[in-house]
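call fold(seq) -> C-alpha cells
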Amino acid sequence: MDGEIKRFIQVWTSAITCLCYCYYITPRIPSGLLRLLSLLPIFYLFIVLPLNLSSTNLGGFTAFLLVWLTNFKLLLFSFDQGPLSPPPPKLFHFISIACLPIKIKQEDENKSHETTKSTTVNPPIPRRVLLGIKFVLLGFIIYAYNYKQYLHQNVILVLYCCHVYLQLEITLAICAAPIRAILGFELEPQFNEPYLATSLQDFWGRRWNLMVTGILRPTIYAPIRRVSTHLIGSTWAPLPAVIAVFVVSGLMHEILYNYITRAPPTWEVTSFFILHGMCMIIEVAVKRALTDKWRLHPAVSGPLVVAFVSVTSVWLFWPQLLRNGVDDRTIREFFNTRDFVKNKFKW
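ret:
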C-alpha cells in the first residue's frame, strides 16, 4: 500500500507539471490546429500515467480524471472553448478546473435549471443531510461485505450497485468541497438524486454524473448536432448526436475498464450505453408523438426507469468487472487502506 501511494503522488506530480505547461505555454499558441498539436504530448502522458497505478480505487479514479475529464477539457481548450477558456487568472484555479470533477455554475445555467425544475422530482431533504445519510449507508454496505459468504448473489449485486453510486457521489463531493471553500466558486452538483429519475432522458441528462454530461455536451453532442442539422434538418439532428454521445461514453468506460482490469475489452459496457442511447431516442420519439396527451405518472415511470437501469447494468455493465474479480479487489483495498491508516497514525 505504501508503494502504491508513492506512485500515486508521483503520477499526480507529473500531471500537475504538465498542466503548468498548459497554463503558461499553450495560451501563447494560436487556438486551433497548432494548439491542438502542442497538446498531443500531454494527451499521451495523461493516457500513460494511470498505468503506473495498480489499485482499483486510485488507478481507476486517476484514469477517469486524467484520461477522460482532463483530456476532454484540454481538447476544448485547444479551440478556445470549455471551462478552461479563457484561462483562469491563477495557476491553482487552472489546475483545479482542469483535473478535478468540478463545474462552475453559470448564470445562464441557473436559468436553464429553473426551466427544468418543474419536470424534475427533487428530494424534500436538504442535500447535506442526504450526503450524510449516504455516507452512513456506504459504511453499512462495506460492513456487510464481512458477511459476503452468507449473502445471495443477487443481494451482493444490489450492494455493488449501491456501493458504486454512493462511493462516486461521496468521492466527487469530497473533491468539490475544498475547491468550493478555497476558490469561493459556486459549483454544479455532480449527482442529482438519480434514483428519483422519471425517464431515461431525466436520468442521463439531469441526474447521473453531471460532470461527464457537461463535458460530453460541447465535445461530442454540440458539433455532431451542428453537422447533422445541415444534413438531415434540425428536427432529427439531435438523434445522431445523442447516439454519438452514448457511443463515446461506452468507449471511454471500456478504456477505464481496461485500466482497472488490465484485460482485453469485451464490449459489454459499450453495448450497455448504446442500448440506453437507442432506448432514450425511442423515449423522446414517443414523447413527441404523444405530446401532452398522455404521460405516465412519476410514481410509475420512476420505478420503471430504476428497474431498467438496474437490470441492464446486471446484464451488461457489471459482468466484465465481476469476471476479473474487481469487486473482491476493491473490498480488499478498502480494508488494506483502513489498516494502513491505522498503523500509520497509531490508531
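The CA atoms of residues 67 and 304 lie 33 Å apart.
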